[in-house]
Amino acid sequence: MAVQIGGTPITLGSLPLSVVDDAGVTWLPTKVKGWSSPAVRAELHPRQSDHGSWASPAYLEARSIAIEGLISAPTTAARDAAIEQLYAAVSLTDTVLVIEETIPKQATVRRSGEVLVEPVNPYSATYSALVTAPDPRRYSTTLQSQSTALPSTTGGLAVPVTLPILISTSTVAGSITLLNSGTIATRPTFTLEGPVTNPTVTVQYPDGTVKALLYSSTLEVGDELVIDTDLHSAVLNGTTSRRLYVSGQWPEIPPGIAVKVGWYADSYDANALLTGSVRSAWM
Question: Cβ neighbours of residue 151 under 8 Å, at least 6 residues apart?
Fold first, then answer.
C-alpha cells in the first residue's frame, strides 16, 4: 500500500507523486511552477494627447504548469518502471491534476512539452514535466450536485364546501441552491431528465436578477439532456447536439455567491428531474 510522504500531496491522473508506492519507489515532487497564477491576456492602447492608455478587458490565459521531482527506487528495474509510469501519466489527452492544499483543488491538463528524465544513479532519476490546463481555473475537488422535480402544489380547497373548513396544501419548490466559495466565477452544468416539454432553467442571484435558459423541445421518458454553461453546449443522450433548441442567457456563479436554481415547463410530470452540478473555482 502506498505511503504518503511529506509536503503537499500531488496526483496526476492515477499516479500519486508524493508517496512511497507499492514497489518501494519514492516519488518526491520538488517544485511546481505555474500553479499559483496563469498569465493574463489584455491589451493597452495609448490615449491620444493624454497620459496613459485605454485598457481592454483582461482574461486569464491557459495555465502552464511545470512539475519537477525525484524518483528513488530500490532497484534499477523499479526505477525504469517508474519512469515509464511517469511518461504514461503525462498524457496527451485530458488528465486531472490534483494538488491537495488546505482546500484541495484540481485542473484538467494535458502534455504540452517534453518529459525530461535525467538518471542520477542506477536507482534514482530527476524529472521535469510540462502540462497545460486550457481552462485556467483551479476547481474544487468536491462536486456539488443537487436535484429537484418540477414545482408542484397538491391539496387545497375543493368546492362546494361546508363551513368551517381546514385548507391543507403541500408544495414542492422545484429549486436547488448552488454555491461558489472560490475567487473567480464558475459555470454550472444542468442535467434534465424527461418526460418534460419546453423546460426553462432559471438562475436567481442575491440581488434578485434572473438568467434563464429555455430548451424549446420535448424530452421523452428516458431522455437525458446535459447543458454545459461553460461550453455553451446541449447534448441529448450523450451523443446528439441540441444546441439549436437552447436560447436565453448562459449563467455563471460569481465568487462567494450562492444562487437559486429553479425550473418550470409547459406541464407537470412527477418523473421529470433537474440536476445542477458545479465546482467552486479559484484564480
Answer: 171, 172, 173, 174, 175, 262, 263, 264
Instruction: Output the CA–CA distances (angstroms, integers) from residue 103 to 94, 151, 279, in the order listed.
Output: 22, 35, 12
Interacting residues of 31 by C-beta distance below 8 A, sequence separation 6+: 66, 67, 68, 69
Could you tell me the pTM of the whole model? 0.87
Output DSSP code: residue 186: B
Distance CA(107)–CA(133), nearest Å, equals 6
Structural contact between residues 154 and 169, judged by C-beta atoms closer than 8 angstroms: yes
Contact 131, 102 (CB under 8 A): no
Burial of 224 (0-12, 13-18, 19+ CB in 10 A): middle
In the beta sheet, which residues pair with residue 179? 258
Instruction: Supply 11's cell numbers.
Output: 496526483
**CA nearest 40: which of 184, 174, 169?**
184
**Rg (Cα) of the chain, in Å, rounded?**
26
State pLDDT tens for residues 221-249.
Answer: 999 999 999 999 999 999 999 999 999 99
Q: Specify whether the CB–CB gap between 95 and 107 falls below 8 A.
A: no
Q: Report the C-alpha gap between 8 and 28 in whole angstroms.
A: 10
d(CA 216, CA 186): 25
Q: Could you read off the pLDDT of 169-192 as tens digits, one per residue?
A: 444 568 999 999 999 999 999 999
Q: Residue 3: which pLDDT band, with cuts at 50, 70 and 90?
A: confident
Q: Which three cell numbers stand for residue 66?
A: 511545470
CB 195 within 8 A of CB 219: yes
Q: What is the DSSP letter of 84?
A: H
Residue 224 grid cell: 437525458
DSSP string, 256-268: TEEEEEEEE-SS-
